[in-house]
Write a structure and sequence with these properties.
Blueprint: H1 2-9, H2 63-68, E1 76-82, H3 89-99, E2 105-111, H4 114-120, H5 128-136, E3 143-146, H6 154-159, E4 164-168, H7 182-186, E5 190-193, H8 201-210, H9 212-221, H10 233-292, H11 297-313, H12 362-370
Parallel strand pairs: 1-2, 1-4, 2-3, 4-5
Keywords: Coiled coil, Lipid biosynthesis, Lipid metabolism, Nucleotidyltransferase, Phospholipid biosynthesis, Phospholipid metabolism, Transferase
Protein name: choline-phosphate cytidylyltransferase
Pathway: Lipid metabolism; Phospholipid metabolism; phosphatidylcholine biosynthesis; phosphatidylcholine from phosphocholine: step 1/2
C-alpha cells in the first residue's frame, strides 16, 4: 500500500514552455515515467502484511507494453525468488537487474523457508528470519514473500498478480525437474538476468572452510569460547600456542624491519658525511696549493717583497746630466762597515750618498736575482 500510494503521487510530467499569457505552447512531450519504489527510509513490507488488492480481475501486461512503460498506478509486477543465504553483492546485482527490467517496476522477492531449503538444497548459514530481514533492507526490493514455494504455480502467480519472473537464464535443475522455470519460459513470463561471476554463497563458504584455522583463531581472540566454536580443548590450546608463536614472529619481524631502517639511515648519514668531508678536503687542499704551491700566492708575495726591498736598498739613479753607464767606473764591491777590521770603508761618491754607509754592486744584484 505504501508503494501504491507513493506511486499514485508520482504523475507523468510535461515539459512546458509558457508564453507571456501562461498557456502551454505547442511541442509538449511526455517525460520519463519514474519507477515505482518504496522510500528508502523503511524496509520493504511483507506481502502477508499488506492490505489485499481489490476484487478487480488481474490482467497481465505484455512484454512490449512493459518495455514501453505503464501508467504510474499500474507498475509491472516482477517476481524474483531465491535462498539469499549470506546475502552478498551478487544477490544485490541480480535484484537490481530485476528492478531495472522495465521503466515502471514493482519488485516482489520470494524467500524460501528453512524446511524447504534444507530439503532441496542443504543446510544454510543464516536462518529464515535473518534471510527475510536481509532482503527487506535491500534498496531495490518493494515487497517480500515469506515461505515462498520452490516451484511457482499458476495459483501463486495469480494471487500475487505477477507479470514476469526474473532469474538468470541458466537451467535450474531441482526437485526432480531439469529446469524449475521451464513452464514460466513457455508461458512467456520469464525475464532473464545476468549472473555475477566470481561470487556466490558457495564460494564464501568455501573460503571459510579452506581457512578454518585462521577464522577459529580470529574468533577465539574476539572472546568466543571453544564450546561456541565447537573446538576441542586440545585444539583450543594449540590455537592459543600458535597465536603466541605468531606474535613472537611479528615482533621479531618488526625488530628486523626497524633495524634495517636504522642501518639504512646510518649508511645514508655516513655517505653524506663522507661526501661533505671530501668536498671540504678538496677545498682545503686547493686553498693550500693556491697559497703555498710552486706558483702560489706566497711565492709571488715573497718575490714582490724582495723586489721592493732591493729597490729600497739599491743606489739611486744618476741624473740625466751624468755620464753614460759605459763611461762610469765599475761599481764598488759590497762592504759592511762592521766587518772591516783593517781600514774604514772609503767614503761614497757624492751621487751615492743615499747608500747609508754601504754599497751594493750591480753584479751582486744580478746574482741575487738569479738565486
Amino acid at each position: 500500500m505504501e508503494a501504491q500510494s507513493s506511486s499514485g503521487l508520482l504523475l507523468s510530467r510535461k515539459r512546458r514552455r509558457e508564453g507571456s499569457n501562461g498557456e502551454t505552447e505547442d511541442g509538449e512531450r511526455l517525460g520519463k515515467i519514474p519507477r515505482c519504489t518504496v522510500g528508502l527510509k523503511h524496509p520493504a513490507p511483507f506481502a502477508d502484511e499488506l492490505v489485499p488488492a481489490d476484487g478487480k480481475p488481474y490482467e497481465r501486461v505484455s512484454m512490449d507494453e512493459a518495455k514501453r512503460g505503464t501508467p504510474p498506478d499500474r507498475p509491472v509486477r516482477v517476481y524474483a525468488d531465491g535462498i539469499f543465504d549470506v546475502f552478498h553483492s551478487g544477490h544485490a546485482r541480480a535484484l537490481m537487474q530485476a528492478k531495472c527490467l522495465f521503466p515502471n517496476t514493482h519488485l516482489i522477492v520470494g524467500v524460501c523457508s528453512d524446511d524447504l531449503t534444507h530439503k532441496y538444497k542443504g543446510f544454510t548459514v543464516m536462518n529464515e528470519d535473518e534471510r527475510y530481514d536481509a532482503i527487506r533492507h535491500c534498496r531495490y526490493v518493494d515487497e517480500v514473500v515469506r515461505n515462498a514455494p520452490w516451484t511457482l504455480t499458476p495459483e501463486f502467480l495469480a494471487r500475487h498478480r505477477i507479470d514476469f519472473v526474473a532469474h538468470d537464464d541458466i537451467p535450474y535443475s531441482s526437485a526432480g525437474s531439469d529446469d524449475v522455470y521451464k513452464h514460466i519460459k513457455e508461458a512467456g513470463m520469464f525475464a532473464p538476468t545476468q549472473r555475477t561471476e566470481g561470487i556466490s554463497t558457495s564460494d564464501i563458504i568455501t573460503r571459510i572452510v579452506r581457512d578454518y584455522d585462521v577464522y577459529v583463531r580470529r574468533n577465539l581472540q574476539r572472546g568466543y569460547t571453544a564450546k561456541e566454536l565447537n573446538v576441542s580443548f586440545i585444539n583450543e590450546k594449540k590455537y592459543h600456542l600458535q597465536e603466541r608463536v605468531d606474535k613472537v614472529k611479528r615482533k621479531v619481524r618488526d625488530v628486523e624491519e626497524k633495524s634495517k631502517e636504522f642501518v639504512q639511515k646510518v649508511e645514508e648519514k655516513s655517505i653524506d658525511l663522507i661526501q661533505k668531508w671530501e668536498e671540504k678536503s678538496r677545498e682545503f687542499i686547493g686553498n693550500f696549493l693556491q697559497m703555498f704551491g710552486p706558483e702560489g700566492a706566497l711565492k709571488h708575495m715573497l718575490k714582490e717583497g724582495k723586489g721592493r726591498m732591493l729597490q729600497a736598498i739599491s743606489p739611486r739613479q744618476s741624473p740625466n746630466s751624468s755620464p753614460a753607464r759605459e763611461e762610469r767606473s765599475p761599481s764598488p764591491t759590497f762592504r759592511l762597515p762592521f766587518f772591516s777590521k783593517t781600514s774604514p770603508p772609503p767614503s761614497p761618491p757624492p751621487h751615492h750618498s743615499g747608500a747609508r754607509g754601504y754599497l751594493i754592486s750591480e753584479d751582486d744584484d744580478e746574482e741575487d736575482d738569479e738565486n
